[in-house]
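Annotators were shown the component list below and the corresponding predicted structure, then asked to write short factual statements about the assembly.
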Amino acid sequence: MGFWEIFGVWLAALLTLGIISFLYRDNAFYKACEAIFVGISAGYWAITYFWDNLYRKFYLQVSDPAGTEKYVPWIGFVLGILMLTRLFKKIGWLSRWPLAFIIGATAGLYMMTYFVSNAMVQISASILPVFEGSFGDIITNLLVSGGTFCGLVYFFFSKEHKGVFGGAARVGIWVLMLTFGASFGYTVMSRMSLMLGRLDFLFGDWLKLIK
Amino acid sequence: MKRNELIVYLLIVAFLLAAYFFFPKPLNFSAAVSIIIVVIMALAFILVFVRTIQGHFIGRRMVFVFVGVALLLPFFMQFKLPLQISPEVRSAYDALVNLPPGSRVLASYDYDPPSAPELQPMADAFIKYCFDHDLKVIIMGLWPQGPQQANLSIEAAFRENPALRNNIKYGVDYVNLGFQSGNEFVILRMGESFKAMFPTDLYNTPYDSIPLLKNIRNYSNVDMSFNFSAGRPGAVEWVQVAVDRYGLRIASCNTAVQAPQVYPYLESGQLLGLLGGMSGAAEFEDLTGKAGKASTYILSQSFAHVVVILFIIIGNVAFFREKRTKVD
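Structure shown to annotators:
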């Protein structure tokens, strides 16, 4: 390991400790590490997007003498400039045009993709033959179909949640709670993994206690 | 800074410096020491539980200490947990195994270093498997740091098996197309032309001069895709655009946070398989026979989960105890 590599590991270790120190209490060391992180992230993203968008996607394409679509990036460039007019009060309204373009294009794409992938395919997948297959399959299919139905009943507000309808809505709440519980469990697992990564770095790469 | 706080920080720094200079490296606990540590932790929990019932509640910092210790100590222990392979990991693995040698696999690295503890072990095992079984890998990233993470996987594969350095050729057996901004619009455009989105690879080599990419125009020319996803853009966008519109076959490797969002796509058959979080990574490593970080991490995570479950029970006991005290 060279000097700069060791220096980098020590620096990363101290910054990690600085961030973890927040677990005890907010402190100056933590604040300094947080500020460094925010600053570096902002700088990193600015440079990445400068080189990737302005240089690679715009400059290289418009300056390519053999380029067949060399005028197309100018449309994006002009729209980008118009976005900056928000900085000037008198012509700020011009920034609505690129926003309209972005919203229109994104909404157009999402409308179809979400309708197909998240609505049609999912509806089709939850319409299951409930009395086919093994005993386990029957139970699973009943749970999926019944859970979907009761979840939908809970979100139906045009009828008062009373009687059988109210009972189905209550089951729907339970299904939702189970889903949130599973989500929370996975989130805890993920956060533990992040901490594991840092501990592995501190006790492995830095202190060399882990093989 | 208060005096107590300063003392705590100094103690931690002193411990770490002592560990740096004086502890044996690497540090390994024998089976007996490991059991003693587990017993001490169990006794500590019983003590906390009894004191909670008596009305003496512990602070949040003590919870952090317990979780931290539970995460750290298994690194030095010699236990190995038996793993139960879940059907979703098995189906992802089967999809990979069923590819004949020479198949082309598109691997999208849509994550960055913060998510590496969960996703890097999956990516490492995937790359090692592909290199060992002559699967051609086309790497790309919708996150700027993704292609660098892929290079780490490749380096790990070469480190583990140095012979691969001579056998596996860049541009023939694998290629790294680099990062492209534009999120789902990149996926959409790739449905027509990979070259339109990646005119050059990560090292500025023109698309047409890379042998591996010679007959690859769009998704119809790749046999399968593995997506390593930590958020947006990632697995959801790949399913919505590449799978449902272009019929690409995808197995998804996700962080645990994202896994519940992706599970419906597995049930509906839009995904071939799913590796969710650290457990998914450990199971995949087990199946591929490439024991890596996840196989070590999973023990720590299991310990920590037990600690969290116990604290949920203790927290509820404390809640009802406090409620009763107020009523009295």
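Statements collected:
1. The CA atoms of residues 219 and 303 of chain B lie 42 Å apart.
2. Chain B touches chain A through 61 residues (CB under 8 Å).
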